[in-house]
Design a protein that fits this description.
By secondary structure, the chain is mainly α. It has two domains: 4-264, no CATH class; 277-329 and 350-428. The protein contains 14 helices and no strands. It has helices spanning 7-21, 30-45, 48-67, 71-95, 99-118, 122-133, 138-153, 159-174, 189-192, 194-220, 226-236, 245-261, 270-329, 344-428. Helix 2 (30-45) packs antiparallel against helix 10 (194-220) and helix 5 (99-118) runs antiparallel to helix 6 (122-133). It is elongated.
Length: 429
Amino acid sequence: MAWPHAAPAIGAVALASALVHTRKLARPALPLVVGLVFAAWIAHTGDGSLIRAAAACIAIAGAATLCVRTERDVRTAARAFAASAAGVALVAGLVGTTGVRADLIAVTAAAGLAAASGSGLRWVAAADLAGILVLPSPVGLVAAGVAVAALIAVETLTVADGAAAAVAAGLAWVLGAPISSGVLPHGLWTTVSGYADTYHRLGTAGLVLFALLLVAIAITLPRRQLPTVLAVAAGTALAPFEATAPLWLLAGLAAPIRRATAANAVASTAVDEGWLRDLEDDLRDLEGEIENKRRGLEAEEERLRRRRAALDEREQEIARRERSAIEVRAPEPTPPPLPRGEDPEEQERRRKLEEREQELEARLAALDDGTRSFDVRTRELEARIKAVDASARALEERERVLNERELGQDIKQRKFSDAVDDFERRTGE
């Protein structure tokens, strides 16, 4: 899309590298076989630019078949394609790409949006949507709309996600983004549409092979990646035949998906199972985080209980001191005043007794101040305990939400198992 003349060389290097690092050649799946026949027909009847594009596409499809081995590799390939499509679209928008080239790149970005959402990378899907909005191509916006609708239909995105995407596109249009300056389509539909373009350039046989390629990919890909095919099919209705380039990558990924699901004799479910395993891993990580926070909260509560016990002991000690001080303060009967000529020793003893009484009164005042300080600290402790209780309630609420998510996951898993059983039963019939 971005550099057509270099595409065959890049495809050849990718295919050669895959052949060097592959020990065992796998049997190609139906989409790759149809793609090979279609590429041969293009080489026989097409022009120079179309032959170069077909050579690059079939080379990339073969490299994908050789390199991708597991369902995790399939998700990685889909994410890499989505990220590269977003990067190309954003750069093309920044350099001012227009016309048919902008339509082709925008359709590829729409396919990347669907692939990223199907493989669980929402931020890459957002980057693909941004790439579409910075290109003057309503064709890409139409393909993205079809992709988002299909993603909602297969329960990959929610209605809220679709509404957010629509709001973002509407704001970009109102604010005068490049998407608002495009024309739909660039020329007559009979000459611009990829289907009509295929008929004019490759004849009836070419159109039939193209339709067979679409059908073969659609029946092989997992349900979560079908929106990618629909996005390309919708974009091809308003853009030239070159917009179908992402389909060849999907054709190359069909054989690894078939290999990954051959053990269970269930087609097109490996990526769904891998996605569910990823969700289970995320759920286990979340449970571990909640368990760590719960242990920390229990440790904090234990520390607060120890402090409360220490404060209770201190309060009891202060109460004992107060009782002792009150007993000491209890006045004895005042002796009658001595006559004027009393003994000097008796006067000294009385003076010391008065000093002792003053000292005791000062200590009682200090004890009263300590009691008030203790009351203040007790109230602070009660406030902290209330905060800990609030944190515990929030943790319980989060655990409840987690349990609801686990229940939803179990329901999805049961639906998935029911679908597999139904498929096996129908296959047996």
